[in-house]
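[09:14] KT: can someone run the structure on this one? pasting the chain below
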Amino acid sequence: MQTSNGETAPVSGALARDQVAVHTQLAKLLGSSHFRNSKRCQALLGYVVEAALGGDQQSLKERCIGTAVFGRATSYDTAQDPVVRNAAMEVRKRLAQYYLEPEHAAELRIELPLGSYLPSFTVEPPAEPPAAAPAVVRSWRLQWAALAALAGVFVAAAALLWSASRTPKSELKAFWEPLFRDGKPIQICIGQPTRVYRFTGPRSEELNRLLGGPSAPGHDKTDLPIGSGELAWVAPEYLFLRDAMAGFKVASWIQSQGQTHQLMSVAQTNYSQLRHLPLVAIGAFNNSWSMRVTAELRFVFDHRTIDGVTYSYIQDRRNPSDSTWSVPQPASRAMTEDYAIVTRVFDPATERTVISVAGVETFGTAAASEFVTEPGYLGVALQAVSRDWRRKNVQFVLGTRIIDGAPGPPRVLSANFW
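[09:31] RB: done, structure tokens below
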């Protein structure tokens, strides 16, 4: 444990007492208004403190933290996924805000120094009474002390104002602000499946029985003849469940900000509507508006065939040969990873700002909808970049793990601002 002058206290004898003090202070911090609403910050701070108290500095490396705290794979690319750095920045800000409050100034200080994940624990020493001084000198010192204290107040206030203006919540609102600006209803356009058919005609019941699901007795009969007149295209009547839930999540966020919206399917959305209303496009390959908006950008959706296997993937036009962000087709229940693009761009065709929330498969779309509605994801990611992003177009490439058929938290793989 460090003292305020940077010296290290002996661990023998005092170690247990010191650890109790640190645990007590950690509990105060995690229960404070600055931390109790952020599970990410609570998890990171608790982890690094416990590792430091246990003397396990090996666990305080970025990759180890990303794996242990945020569920990343042990081989994940820390340069492409700054989740630990972003969370540490947020923890440092919250710690600074906590200790700026006068009632906490004399408490044991737990800090996370810049450039390190090894926390420091310091105790402010009690102030010693100053030696007597001549009245004139004492008056002069008091004046300067008052001026210094006043300057400190202004500096602290400016720091708090700056910090408050860059909270994740405010950054998330700034991302949406171009769509909120005119106060017009926001059209949420949800993608639809393109190949959905219903059996029709006198054999419809028989075909439903034979081919109506994975457990149907004849679902593997590829040679069963079906005439074109026995199929009716009904795709405009359906939505993918995860796409629909993503649309509802976005709608709830918009409504929580006092804005109005209207939910529409791709089949119900036309160009003339989008000339007058801001757009949020949900889905990728099943949403022609998302595909059109991203078609000329850096990150785009595409298909390619490798060794006879077709993949749907996200292409980075600066590295077109890379197919890392890909999903083999047809997608199976065994898939463990999906990818998405979140785009905010001014569309010259409609003269409106458009947001696209789009996954390669519907798992990615669901994760992307969390990313654009929860400040702990998009807000934190935007805090880490220059403030002038607000005037720019934005694209994020996201990844999400699929566990037990459900998408995990979104993580940033790459970003572009222009």
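[09:33] KT: thanks! The radius of gyration is 28 Å.
[09:34] RB: yep, looked fine to me
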